[in-house]
Amino acid sequence: MRRSSMETAAAILAAARERFAADGYDKATIRAIAADARIDPAMVMRYFGNKEKLFAAAAEFDLELPELAPDQAGDGLVRHFLRKWEANEGLQVLLRTGVTNEAAAERMRTVLGGQVIPLVTRLTGDPQRAPFRASLIASQLLGLALSRYILQFPPMVTASEEELVVWLGPTIQRYLTD
Known about the structure:
The protein is an all-alpha fold.
């Protein structure tokens, strides 16, 4: 059965996400991704050019940042990111891989910077300091994700969403309002 061009690209991306999640960036191969997608490896290269570009496409995430009231944004961001990390293993892969791979780190900077900075600018009305504020917020949220989902520190893994919101929400709020 022949697939359309869009279906082929979608199959490659789905296989790449799964393979990057299972093996990490360095161990995942174009050949393995192609086998998972049931296509020739040359087709992967035709659609995406190289492994780095395939990873960038596979690691493209819409964080779907919610509309937040400025006075409740800290709690809202912590809650939202916890739910995103729980629902999307690809974000965990991006974090894990971003620590050791420059392409993945750049992808993470692009995703977070491109989506969090505009939100911070809207919430604060401070476009000058928004990148710095967003970086502080990212440091907390990425630290949370690293300790809870990657390193799996027992207290972080067992903490409830509400506990984490109570502890981290005020810190994020301070980055937005101070």
